[in-house]
């Protein structure tokens, strides 16, 4: 059955296809759909599996989607009259939009039913992933389960991956729904309003060999993978004189925070090199943050390789580029498992370099996940820019689709100076607030508000008790060291998703701080006694 509505021969044919998808076969109950085949007719039929997707499910619960081998079925919304909001993606943009909708005051018949879809069972507070490597925080503190966060709400959560979108709102017809979301499990969710918050993933296809030998640091799984690799190297080199060699590609915030955190963790047992194509680090950051970072990196002997870009990444002792600098190989070190980074100068007149590392961390580039939702045969009519982000108007609605909003990495907006907004958590926070309000306004026939980004400042971690914070309300002020570290943790504690989680994490941090203070005091008291 053809479901790519945007490419239909006419709006009438497209609407007919949409209705066929929504209503399914008349021989089955309304909660089930017939055994359609999307796209190619060569795909296999799937068996039917009964799943509890009706009004009997508890509020704020995690819903079980059909098994991957099941036939397509419709999700039955509990109330046929109240608006239906489907949010795709449970990151900052998606989860905080859902929580914002819950916090607003609604007329009894207008409060929307909300479904949140994400492929992971946990929300991840990404700005604090670095604390997992330093051991300062535990995973549950920055990656709570959606089921816990939504337990006291009416939001229903599906752990699943979105396969396709089939919007109908751009057809300007009286369709019974604004569109349908198809999940990989086969579940079909009709919606009246859709929020795209699919986020992004690391872009490892920029350099040959990066996808094979470099580790990204973008998700909770990435953080666990990097931590596991570091532990393996620490055990392997425990009784050896050779240091663990770490190469960090990129000197934006992500690269600098990784270099500072890992160099503090490894100390004299590690050699950390940070590579950047520009002649400086943090080129777009406030001067105070950049100066604080340079000071910390220098104190921890992080080697900055500036003005070079990675040309290729290979494994083991292999041939090097002709214009690369001759390398002296230490015969006492086993290079069979080394990762080789071939560097080229960003400006002419310099020689290339060869860097050997035990682990390579990649922090350059990201790509939005939104283009992956398009049907492979005929794409739908959602305008995307060159990066794969949805083109939105100033109210965060996708252009040409009045029933679809896009936030975070899925959207593209410019600030008052015409510059593209950065793909940061701060932007996603603010957009989620506006998206929730504008959904309320649209459902209640009120005017929508234009999104206005307010830069509140920039923060970065530089180690277990070190950070740099440059607030926007005071020019030239930068909080460094323990003061900056405390300010950053308090700011992020306030930004955690729910009051319940904030209380749990706040108590945990307070207890850890108390234990650390007592241990420090004991060390100070016992040191003079041991010297005497």
Automatic annotation (TrEMBL):
Cofactor(s) needed for function: FAD
Domain FAD/NAD(P)-binding as annotated: residue spans: 84-432
Keywords associated with the record: FAD, Flavoprotein, NADP, Oxidoreductase
GO cellular component, one term: chloroplast
Reaction equations catalysed: demethylphylloquinone + NADPH + H(+) = demethylphylloquinol + NADP(+)
The keyword Transmembrane helix is assigned to this record: no
Enzyme Commission code: 1.6.5.12
A single MF term (Gene Ontology): NAD(P)H dehydrogenase (quinone) activity
SUPFAM superfamilies: FAD/NAD(P)-binding domain
Family matches, as InterPro entries: FAD/NAD-bd_sf (IPR036188), FAD/NAD-binding_dom (IPR023753), NADH-Q_oxidoreductase (IPR051169)
Pfam name, any one: Pyr_redox_2
Swiss-Prot/TrEMBL GO biological process terms: aerobic electron transport chain; phylloquinone biosynthetic process
Family: Belongs to the NADH dehydrogenase family.
Protein name as it appears in the record: demethylphylloquinone reductase
Organism: Capsicum baccatum (Peruvian pepper)
């Amino acid at each position: 059955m053809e479901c790519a509505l945007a490419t239909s021969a006419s709006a009438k044919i497209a609407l007919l296809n949409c209705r066929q998808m929504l209503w399914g076969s008349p021989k089955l109950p309304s909660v089930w759909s017939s055994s359609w085949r999307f796209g190619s007719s060569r795909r296999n039929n799937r068996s039917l599996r009964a799943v509890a997707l009706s009004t009997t499910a508890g509020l704020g619960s995690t819903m079980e989607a059909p098994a991957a081998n099941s036939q397509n079925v419709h999700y039955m919304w509990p109330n046929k009259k109240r608006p239906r909001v489907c949010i795709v993606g449970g990151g900052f943009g998606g989860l905080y939009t859902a929580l914002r909708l819950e916090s607003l005051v609604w007329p009894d018949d207008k409060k929307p039913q909300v479904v949140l879809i994400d492929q992971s069972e946990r929300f991840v507070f990404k700005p604090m992933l670095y604390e997992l490597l330093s051991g300062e925080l535990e995973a549950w503190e920055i990656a709570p389960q959606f089921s816990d966060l939504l337990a006291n709400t009416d939001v229903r959560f599906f752990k699943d991956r979105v396969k396709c979108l089939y919007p109908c709102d751009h057809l300007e017809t009286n369709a019974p729904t604004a569109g349908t979301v198809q999940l990989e499990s086969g579940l079909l969710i009709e919606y009246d309003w859709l929020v795209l918050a699919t986020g992004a993933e690391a872009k490892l296809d920029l350099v040959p060999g990066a996808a094979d030998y470099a580790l990204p640091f973008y998700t909770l799984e990435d953080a666990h993978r990097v931590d596991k690799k570091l532990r393996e190297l620490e055990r392997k080199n425990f009784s050896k004189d050779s240091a663990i060699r770490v190469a960090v590609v990129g000197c934006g915030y992500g690269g600098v925070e990784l270099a500072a955190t890992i160099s503090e963790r490894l100390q004299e047992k590690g050699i950390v090199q940070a590579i950047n194509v520009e002649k400086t680090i943090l080129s777009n950051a406030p001067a105070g943050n950049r100066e604080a970072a340079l000071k910390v990196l220098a104190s921890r002997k992080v080697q900055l390789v500036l003005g070079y870009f990675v040309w290729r990444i290979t494994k083991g002792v292999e041939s090097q580029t002709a214009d690369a600098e001759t390398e002296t190989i230490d015969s006492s070190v086993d290079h069979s498992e080394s990762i080789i980074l071939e560097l080229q100068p960003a400006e002419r007149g310099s020689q290339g370099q060869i860097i050997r590392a035990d682990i390579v961390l990649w922090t350059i580039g990201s790509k939005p996940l939104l283009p992956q939702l398009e049907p492979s045969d005929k794409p739908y009519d959602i305008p995307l820019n060159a990066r794969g982000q949805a083109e939105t108007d100033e109210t965060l609605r996708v252009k040409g689709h009045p029933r679809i909003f896009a936030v975070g990495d899925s959207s593209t907006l410019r600030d008052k100076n015409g510059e593209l907004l950065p793909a940061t958590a701060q932007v996603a926070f603010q957009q989620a607030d506006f998206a929730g309000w504008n959904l309320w306004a649209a459902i209640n026939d009120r005017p929508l508000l234009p999104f206005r980004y307010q830069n509140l400042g920039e923060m970065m971690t530089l180690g277990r008790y070190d950070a740099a914070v440059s607030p926007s309300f005071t020019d030239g002020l930068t909080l460094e060291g323990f003061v900056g570290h405390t300010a950053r943790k308090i700011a992020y504690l306030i930004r955690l998703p729910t009051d319940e989680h904030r209380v749990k994490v706040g108590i945990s941090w307070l207890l850890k701080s108390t234990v650390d203070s007592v241990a420090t005091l004991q060390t100070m008291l016992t040191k003079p006694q041991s010297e005497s």
